[in-house]
Write a structure and sequence with these properties.
Helix content: 40-55%
Oligomer: single chain
Strand order of the largest sheet: 1-4-5-8
Bound molecules: flavin-adenine dinucleotide
Number of helices: 10
CATH topology of the largest domain: Butyryl-CoA Dehydrogenase, subunit A, domain 3
Distance between the termini: 30 Å
Radius of gyration: 21 Å
Length: 380
């Protein structure tokens, strides 16, 4: 058992922290206020290799491991939840399934552009009637000659309206229920594919969350991702990795809130003392730090299992459940430590509280995580 980060992990942590502090943190408030996708930061992440951390050099990746990606996500979320979710959707939701299930031809065609930041990627699973029950997807894909014809609608898709490359699910054999779903790669500009509105969200502003419409959208047969009718199994695999990404994001948001709270507690004087002297504040800080440490360990352990090629569905669900509830509590306490100033937009903890709220919802709500964990415990 080794609880040390490797030299490579430490290097990634330090490099990404420096990048995040210098180039993202000064922009985080403006991104939140303007709700504009930070295209320049996205491009910079491509240049720095952050979009390609866990992928092979042959596709333009950095040949790191998944833990490295999670470390980067934590460091970025520490200063901006928005940039973290953009990175998450690009790498763990779009590139991961292409990398895992794609043919060599598909990987060579799509990954280099996605990893360099030249192309934006998205993953379209959720539909108006198929959220937690993602198997209830109604989008249909019918084979006609040498094409698939897609009809249907997706909702809440991160990066959706901007994406150049989208991995989407559709029913190919409705009689077979969850065994009749397949995944496809759709390119921006394909006739019949049209992004709809971007949602107005409470947080993670600047990250687009979009509707997608498919109306007789014709894509080549070769754009089937993985095997026909295995889309349900595939997205469960994708979501395991995605849950670790969102867990790391939650840890980063919690750590960011803790760092802001500690700095503020040192500065703010009441009753002739910095509030950091008061036991009530110190206890909140101690609890935050303890929970964050435990949360981070759960992410690392689940990621380590992934690296070993072991099953980690339960551990990913546990990490997601715990980390996202820790981030809720940490951001709550960070606002409490800021008092009234924590409730106004001048202080980052207000944004962090709004941003972290998504973590308990996206990539499977925390109720669904409890369900997954209980199923494993009861051996079902
Ligand atoms: C900002 C944002 C970004 C997103 N990005 C993406 C993306 O990139 N790609 C994508 O495909 N999706 C994305 N989503 C969708 C997200 O994954 C879904 O919102 C989520 O899975 C929940 O689905 P739902 O919203 O339909 O809620 P519902 O499934 O309708 O759930 C409503 C409530 O019922 C509970 N519930 C449902 N079923 C059960 C059950 N069996 N037992 C107990 N409780 C249950 C839920 O936990 C929740 O509390 C995003 C959502 C948001 C808000």
């Amino acid at each position: 058992m080794d609880f040390q980060l490797t030299e490579e992990h430490l290097l990634i942590k330090n490099t990404v922290r420096e990048f995040a502090e210098k180039e993202i943190a000064p922009r985080a408030e403006e991104i939140d206020a303007t709700d504009q996708f930070p295209a320049d930061i996205f491009k910079r992440m491509g240049e720095l290799g952050l979009l390609g951390i866990p992928f092979e050099e042959a596709y333009g990746g950095a040949h790191g491991d998944y833990i490295s990606l999670l470390i980067a996500l934590e460091e970025i979320a520490r200063v901006s939840g928005t940039v973290a979710i953009i990175l998450d959707a690009q790498t763990s939701l779009c590139c991961e399934p292409i990398h895992h299930f794609g043919t060599e031809e598909q990987k060579m065609k799509y990954l280099p552009g996605l990893l360099s930041g030249e192309k934006i990627g998205a993953f379209g699973l959720t539909e108006p009637g198929a959220g937690s029950d993602a198997g209830a997807t109604r989008t249909r894909a019918v084979r006609e000659g040498d094409e698939w014809v897609l009809n249907g609608e997706k909702i809440f898709i991160t990066n959706g309206s901007l994406a150049d490359v989208l991995v989407v699910t559709a029913k190919t054999d409705p009689e077979k229920g969850t065994h009749g779903i397949s995944a496809f790669i759709v390119e921006k500009g394909t006739p019949g594919f049209q992004p709809g509105r971007d949602e107005k969200k409470m947080g993670l502003k600047g990250s687009v969350t979009s509707q997608l419409f498919f109306e007789n959208c014709r894509i080549p047969l070769g754009n089937l991702l993985g095997k026909e009718n295995e889309g349900f199994k595939q997205f469960l695999v994708t979501l395991d990795a995605g849950r670790l990404a969102i867990s790391a994001m939650a840890v980063g948001l919690a750590q960011g809130a803790l760092d802001k709270a500690v700095a503020y507690a040192r500065e703010r004087v009441q009753f002739d003392h910095p509030i950091a002297d008061f036991e009530a504040i110190r206890w909140m800080v101690a609890e935050m730090a303890t929970e964050i440490e435990a949360a981070r360990m759960m992410v690392y352990r689940a990621a380590w299992l992934k690296e070993q090629g072991a099953r980690y569905t339960k551990e990913a669900a546990m990490a997601k459940l715990f980390c996202t509830e820790v981030s809720e509590r940490a951001c709550y306490k960070a606002i409490q430590i800021h008092g009234g100033y924590g409730y106004v937009r001048d202080y980052a903890v207000e944004r962090m509280y709004r941003d972290q709220r998504l973590c308990a919802i996206g990539e499977g709500t925390n109720e669904i995580q409890r369900l997954v964990i209980a199923r494993h415990i009861f051996g079902e």
